[in-house]
């Protein structure tokens, strides 16, 4: 079961960015970013075809887990936020509902090097912990995707798993994968968070 993100007062603003739920009107801008080779390299889906991407984004489950990152009114990337249940024994499963968030990010390379991905992801942690009330946030990536795991570390996330050759990459074959996580008790809002 996933939690409805309507509990958040959208749009959310940080020092420089606006975060909001994606709409079908965002598909062209998001596809333009996702088809850039350095971005496409690490994404879990093949975004070489705009029609296929539009069809995927039309799926309500996908659309409701995608947040747009805007800078000065222009789409510069997107975030992934999916709230789920933690694993639990059946007699306490109700207490584990909607306690875990998985997050991810995509940023247009033209805007790299300015701390925008960190600012957006830090706000995503705040939304997860404060607005949605989860107790744990996790993120996954290929071990070879150094910019992604370096961002996780800047956010204060801890590497919990280094899985050997567990992730199949479309051109590189079997690669190692990393899982990072952070508990609400470990989290500290950063300077670019909008606050509660």
Automatic annotation (TrEMBL):
Signal peptide: none
Residue ranges constituting the N-acetyltransferase domain according to the UniProt record: 17-185
This protein's name: GNAT family N-acetyltransferase
Annotated InterPro entries: Acyl_CoA_acyltransferase, GNAT_dom, N-acetyltransferase
């Amino acid at each position: 079961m996933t939690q409805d993100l309507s509990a958040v007062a959208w749009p959310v603003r940080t020092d420089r960015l606006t975060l909001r739920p994606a709409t079908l009107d965002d598909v062209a801008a998001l596809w333009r970013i996702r088809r850039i080779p350095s971005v496409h390299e690490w994404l879990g889906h093949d975004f070489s075809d705009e029609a296929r991407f539009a069809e995927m984004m039309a799926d309500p489950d996908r659309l409701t887990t995608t947040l747009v990152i805007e800078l000065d009114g222009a789409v510069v990337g997107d975030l992934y936020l999916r709230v789920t249940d933690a694993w639990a024994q059946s007699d306490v499963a109700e207490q584990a509902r909607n306690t875990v968030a998985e997050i991810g990010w995509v940023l247009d390379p033209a805007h790299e090097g300015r701390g925008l991905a960190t600012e957006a992801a830090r706000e995503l942690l705040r939304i997860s912990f404060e607005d949605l009330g989860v107790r744990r946030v996790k993120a996954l990536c290929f071990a070879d995707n150094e910019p992604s795991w370096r961002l996780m570390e800047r956010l204060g996330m801890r590497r919990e798993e280094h899985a050997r050759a567990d992730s199949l990459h479309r051109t590189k074959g079997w690669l190692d994968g990393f899982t990072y996580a952070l508990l609400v008790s470990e989290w500290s809002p950063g300077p670019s968070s909008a606050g509660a």
